[in-house]
Amino acid sequence: MDYFERFAIPHPSPAIYASMVAIGLTVIAIIVGLTYFKKWGYLWREWLTTVDHKRIGIMYLISALLMLFRGGADAIMMRAQMAVPDNKLLDAQHYNEIFTTHGTVMIIFMAMPFIMAFMNFIVPLQIGARDVAFPRLNALSFWLFFMGAMLLNISFVIGGSPDAGWTNYFPLASNEFSQSVGTNYYLFALQISGLGTLITGINMIVTILKMRAPGMTLMKMPMFTWSSFVANVIIVFAFPVLTVALVMGTFDRLFATNFFTTSNGGMDMLWANFFWVWGHPEVYILILPAFGLYSEIISTFSGRNLYGYKSMVGSMVIISFLSFLVWTHHFFTMGQGALTNSIFSITTMAIAVPTGVKIFNWLFTLWKGKIVFTTPMLYSMLFIPTFTIGGVTGVMLGMSAADYQYHNTMFLVAHFHMVIIPGVVFAMLAGLHYYWPKMFGFMLNEKIGKVTAWIIAISTLLAFMPMFFSGLDGQARRMYTYSASTGFGMWNMISFIGAIGLTIGFILIVYNVYYSIRYAPRNVGSDPWDARTLEWATPSPVPYYNFAKVPYVISREALWDAKYRQHDLFPEQYENIHMPNNSGVPFILGCIFFAWGFSFVFGMWIPTIVTTIGIFICMAHRSLEKDPGHYISVEKVKATESKLRGSQS
Q1: Which pLDDT value is given to residue 619?
Q2: What is the DSSP string of 11-50?
Q3: CA 633 to CA 629: how far, in whole Å?
Q4: What's the mean pLDDT in 278-305?
Q5: 582 — alpha (psi -120 to 50), left (phi > 0) or beta?
């Protein structure tokens, strides 16, 4: 009995018991469905063992959408709790757990896989490559991310959720103040998924630098590829800091070291510094690829090449540099002194300049353009004014003296969401509609998409604009309740209505997918948007080998040149195509990492040792394995192209 008690939830509630039942029924339904339809072999061959960058991108996409609803459920519960004064829907402990998991899931396990989905799917196609540089590492990256996400998500039914906030500040996250294993889950889930992200960063950098099509110099790369390249450079420099911080936090909790304690030589502010040295560049890891998506979409639906290409590239490079020089603005109020605050106040406001350059570049691209208001373009247009509100309030927070008023209030919460939702979520939804036909061979319904875009945009304003006012009135963040005498009730009720609107919007996205699967025509062609870059030169959906012939590039808009300037994009002859073999090792290694993390969470040392040995065995197997890949014959390539092109004519 003592053995099972360690896995019990320390603060159970009816909602958690309902979640346990729902998880159990879902697992049973999946197993029964796969067995009944005899899909176990298909699942293993085509998905669990795949090294195809496109399928890995789609798996990232599915994971991100699932985590969007997982984190969204937390958000609805928080907004419901705060909707009226003195609410008893959640107690303080449950609110802390939801508050923590919402932020962690949305940033690490929703936004990150969303951008990874588009990086994986689009970048090799945009640069004319047939895969990424290291296909098996790419598969391992996904499975490490996925197992990290699953490890965090089982915490609220086995052992208890983390409750020290999504920033996991020590000493609040220490054993003294966070006694359940929830914080252990946080540390190992982020460690495992962060390792996968770091591997992706290295993989993407090598892919972009070494696998571009003939003629594609760095200054001829599409803007999304540039934004992905800069974001992955930030990943390579920022994520090792998080890795070290998580290891030190783990040692504090499991082995009684004193890295982040307030006594015995520890420094509690060391965690805050490490976290934000990673955490603020993380914002730009999310934002820059989103900016790249907006650039592609705005250029396509304005019927014009992107204005100020070189200044866009330069601004991203400047942003990547400045992103590492602003972390201290997250604790202006923690006693650093006027000089330090002044320096970081200047760097914080300086980073707004290259961001502003991008806004003007998009506006000048629109100027005199032949604008077509598709769903992706609508999200892009709604992004500009909404994101500007978030950006301007960021400059306000960047003034260290004023930040003493704003910092621990709902004003900061409003700013963050008004940056991340338009800047990242709108971009991901725009990209989802834009690249859906390339991924699946049919388009999402435009009418439903446009209605959804307006509902999400209006609901975003309803949900977060009131927080600016309640924050200025003094409502502190992280509170789980408040009294009627504060006057915050009206603002929080409006925010709750906005949150309901966002829920309706995201449900409509699911309905759009369902509706389009059933009714959308399948003969959309390879280029339904009249786009400008290489990925649209492939059939839809894209064949396994991407390009039957290697493309030759002469400008930044290779497909546009081929369509309207008579450039021969594929001058070479057909030839046998070499492709990597599928492998089950990345999936198996991911499962072992899951068991390794779970064992560490509960301090089960024998399973920890066994799984550690298993990790090294898998690594040794890959090191000693001889796998030359396989060739696709010219005849098979021609037959595939004929079938795909013929079905789209």
Answers
A1: 94
A2: S--HHHHHHHHHHHHHHHHHHHHHHHTT-HHHHIIIIIT-
A3: 13
A4: 95
A5: beta
**Which residues in 359-393 are b (16+ Cβ under 10 Å) and which e?**
bebbeebbeeeeeeebbbbbbbbbbbebbebbbeb
Specify the amino acid at residue 180: S
In DSSP terms, 631 is beta-bridged to: 578
Q: Are 272 and 336 in contact (CB under 8 A)?
A: no
> According to DSSP H, which parts of 351-374 are helical?
352-366
Tell which residue, 552, 548, 528, 532, has the closest CA to residue 540: 528
Residue with tokens 């996409």: 61
Helix (H, G, I), strand (E, B) or coil at 646: helix
Single-letter residue type at 550? V
pTM summary value? 0.95
Angle at 444 between CA 438 and CA 450, to 5 degrees: 125
pLDDT value for 1 = 37
Average pLDDT over residues 202-215: 96
pLDDT for the residue numbered 264: 85
**How many Å apart are CA 265 and CA 593, to the nearest integer?**
33
The torsion angles phi and psi of 409, rounded to 5 degrees, stand at: -115, 175
Average pLDDT in the 179-200 region?
A: 95
d(CA 113, CA 57): 9
Coarse DSSP helix, strand, coil percentages of the chain, rounded to the nearest 5 percent: 70, 0, 30
Phi, psi of 476 (to 5 degrees): -80, 145
CA distances, 140 to each of 68, 147, 286, 433, 627 (Å): 22, 10, 21, 27, 17
Cα-atom radius of gyration of the chain, to the nearest Å? 25
pLDDT digit string, tens, across residues 276-288:
999 999 999 999 9
- Residue 2: pLDDT band by 50, 70, 90 thresholds? low
What proportion of the chain, given as a percentage, has pLDDT over 70? 99
Question: Is the Cβ–Cβ distance between 153 and 161 less than 8 Å?
Answer: no
- Provide φ and ψ at 577, rounded to 5°: -110, 125
